[in-house]
Amino acid sequence: MSLKPTIVLKPLSSELIEDIRVTNEPFTLIGRIVPQLQNGKWSYEEQMFDEPKEIRFPDDQLDWEDYIDQENKALFLAYIGSICIGQIRVVRDWTRFGYIENIATIREYRRTGVSKLLLERAEAWAKDKQLVGLSLEAQDDNLVACRFYAKHGFVLGGADLLKHTGSVIDTALYWYKMFDELS
Predict the structure, then answer these.
(1) What's the rounded Cα separation, in Å, for the pair 138 and 101?
(2) Is the pTM value of this prediction over 0.85?
(3) Using CA atoms, how far apart are residues 60 and 132, in angstroms rounded to an integer?
(4) Residue 118: enclosing H or E segment and its boundaries?
C-alpha cells in the first residue's frame, strides 16, 4: 500500500516567488458552457468540442512582492516536498467577495485534490476577512474548470459577451460561492 504524499500549502514569501510560474502549464479544452438567462436565473448547457485542444495562458506580469503579507490579497502555493505543484491567488474585491484571480495545478497533479485544497485555503482566507463569498471569472471554453467550480459549490452568476472582444474567447463567465454563515 503506497502512502499519499503530503501536500503543504504555503503563503507566498520572497523565497518562493520563482515557483509561481511553474504552475502555468498547458491544459486541455474539451468543450464550452453555453449560458442562458431565463426569468432572472442563470443556467447553462455543455457543448463538447469535436476535437480537444490544448492551450496555455501567458505568464502573468505582476509584482509578486505585492502579494506577500498583505491584508487584501494573498497567494498560496502547494508543495510536495520542495516541488511546487499548484497555486491560488485571491484578492478582497470591493463587492466583499474574495475574487480568485488564478488557480492552477501542474498537469501531473490534476484530479488529485490539489485544486480542492487550494480552493479551501482561499475560502478560509476570505472567511477570515469576513467576506460574503468567493467569485471568479472563467472562460466559456474552459469546461473542465467550470465543472470544477460547480462541483465545489459555485453557481453561474453572469456572462459577458464583450469583455474579451478581439480575442479568441467568446464569453466571460462569472461564478460565485456564497458563505451561508455570513449572510
Answers:
(1) 10
(2) yes
(3) 27
(4) helix 114-128
> Looking at the predicted structure, is the pLDDT value of residue 34 above 70?
yes
Average pLDDT (36-55) is 95
Please report the pLDDT score of residue 182 as a whole number.
Answer: 46
- State the CB neighbour count (10 A cutoff) for residue 26: 10
User: CA-CA distance, 168 to 115, in Å (whole number)?
Assistant: 26
Residue 51 and residue 25 in contact, taking contact as beta carbons nearer than 8 Å: no
How many Cα atoms are found within 13 Å in the side-chain-facing hemisphere of 102? 21
Burial 135-159 (b: 16+ CB within 10 A, else e): bbebbbbbbebbebbeeebbebeeb
Amino acid at 113: G
